[in-house]
Each structure stands twice: as structure tokens, then as C-alpha cells.
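Much of what follows relies on a compact textual record of a protein's fold. A record is reproduced here so that you can trace the correspondence yourselves:

. . .
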Amino acid sequence: MTASLLLRNVRPYAGPAVDMLIENGRITRIASGIEAPAGVAVEDGRGEIVIPGLVEAHTHLDKSLWGLPWYTNEVGPKLLDKIDNERENKKRLDIDPARQSARQSIQSSLMGSTHIRSHVDVDTEHGLWGVEGVMATRDGYRDIIDIELVAFPQSGLLRRPGTLELMDQAMKAGCEIVGGLDPCAIDRDPKGHLDAVFALCQTYGKPLDIHLHEPGEMGLFSTELIIERTRALGMKGKVTISHAFSLGAEPALVDPVIEQLAALDIAIMTTGPASRPAPPVKKLLAAGVRVCSGNDGIRDTWGPYGNADMLERAMFIGLRNNLRRDDELRLALDVCTTEGAKVMEIAGYGVAEGCNADFVILPGETVAEAIVTRSPKRRVVKRGKIVARDGVSIRTAP
């Protein structure tokens, strides 16, 4: 459902004050002194900043414990410990994918996200439970947020026979993206794992978004295998490597890889992690690599952190990459907005005439101040309709 609205006295990207006319869910005019067409609601922008809707390009809607009793985490330290614990305890902890994904989606919308890419677990213990639940949220909450699903073999693809067949079913059911996970460290069969996920991409004509936590030279080896298949299969511009911790290794090893990523338009997703090596955002952007971000897991069995705020994520990216100047903080915001939209291939995205009216209105003198202060007093507009105001959504969480 689209709407019409006249916003008076707003500042796109903290520039000069203008009015914005939205008609049928699209920005049709940006100028000073626009007269309100008959029947169109008028909203006072109070001289606040307008930025495009925040893009949550990497999260796990089916896993959040949002709204459930506090979970005491005593799991680890190995990655497989966390994976197995989560799979084995989902039903005991009542992590219903439909309810929990709806709760997190509303929270994301409140904080200003208008688009989400969610990796959704597919495994032999729960089958398509997660996919079906998140699809119900995708279809039921389109009025406040757009969601696309990645079929994600969290427990491994080859180490648990039957998972590949379930991944195929998930793609048939309507997942938009094929997922993958640590072909060396988890499945211990990089050729088999990558051949399988790329084959699914070829079968369904869909992109790939693969988790790659593998560090150092192991991760760079996996990256090179991904590059080889992207080139050989003609998938330029259709692959995202998420986390990509290995790109935080020694520049002499990483720089030649970045050149190949740029040549094949392979995107990188980084959360700006505090405890792992991280991809060098400025260097990647300068090379022409699309870089997006996401909050990853939000209050789940893996960790207690997160509030679904992509402005906070922009701050984390700034901190992790030593972005201090105002123009550098704008880069951090771009990673959480326009760059994420490029990775997700969102049509009509932006704050310009002709774009879809998906944006956030928030206080601040400059974009940098908005990132640093992260005011809760935000108005979120989706398809021309105000869907959240000062932390209150038009939707009620289940």
C-alpha cells in the first residue's frame, strides 16, 4: 500500500531546507514552497535531516530471542558448539520463527530500516520451519518493511546429509538467495560445498551470499575458490561474501584479492566486528567494491547484544575503520544505506525525485552528528506512509 504526503522543511543529507512531495509512494518533487495538492497530508519536518531508509543487509530473523525471557549463555568457545546448541534448543526455548521474525522486523522498522536481508536456517532437524516462519513475516509486514530470504545451511551443508535437498526445497519455496558457510572450516570440503551452492544458484538463477568466517590464509583460499567459480559461471555482480574476516589479513596478501573482487563485482558484508579482523572498508570502496553491513544476530543464543539500529552499526563501522572526519562518517552511513541497496539490488532507492518514498527523518545538524547521537526521535516513512514515530510503530508486536 502506498500513500501521499507533503513534508515541509526537511534537509536531505543535512543540506539546505526543502519540501518533499510524495505521491503514491514515490518522491515526485523536491523544492522550496511546494503547495499541498488537495487531500494530501502535510507533515512538519522541523528542519530535520532526511536519509534513505537504513538497509539491514545481514541478519537472522528466525533466531532472535527478542521479547523472550533472558537466556543465560554458557556455550562455546568453538563455532560448532554455538551452531549445535542453537539447533538443539530452538524448540525448547520457544524460538518460533514467525513470531520472532515479526518482533525483530518491527524493531528494525522502529530504528529506521526499510529493507532486510535475512539468512534463515535450513537443517535436517527443523527442515523449512524457519523459512516458512520468516516468509509469513515477509508477506504479513510488507506495509512497514521489505524482507528477502537467504536459504542458509547454518549447521553445515555436507556434514549433515539431506541438507542440500532441503536447500533445494527452500529455493523452490521462494527464497531469493542461496546461502553458504565456511566451506573449509565447517564442511571440510571446499570444492564439494562451493560446487553445491553455485549449482543451486545456476539452477534457480539466484545470487549467492556466503558466510566466510575463516581467518587468514584459509579464508583467502576459500575466497579465491569463490572468485574462480564466479568468473567461470558468469556470476559477476551476483555474489556476496559475508564477514570476510580474512580480508583483515596482511595487505600484501589481501590487496591482490581486492583487485579480483572489484573486477568481478563481488560484494562484501562487514559488521565492523570488535573481536575479529575486519575488511578494510575505505580500501574496498576506493577499489569499487560494494560494501554493505548488518547487525547479524540480535539477542540470540550466540550473544546478548543488538537493538537492530543500523545507525549504531554505522558507528561501529566508523570505530573499527578509524573513520573520524565528517566525510568519512558519511561513508559509514553509505555502507548502511546506499551501498546496502546496491548489494540487495533495490530498485528506486534513494532520496531524490523519482525514488521510492522509503526514508528516515531524524534530528541533527550534520549526518555525522546523527550517527554519533543516534536520537530515538525518528520518523520512518515506508512507501510514503509514516510507519514509526518516536519509537512507536503502526504495527503491534506478537
In short: The first helix runs from residue 79 to 89. The chain has a mean pLDDT of 97. The chain has two domains: 5-52+351-388, 54-344. DSSP finds twelve helices and 16 strands in the chain.
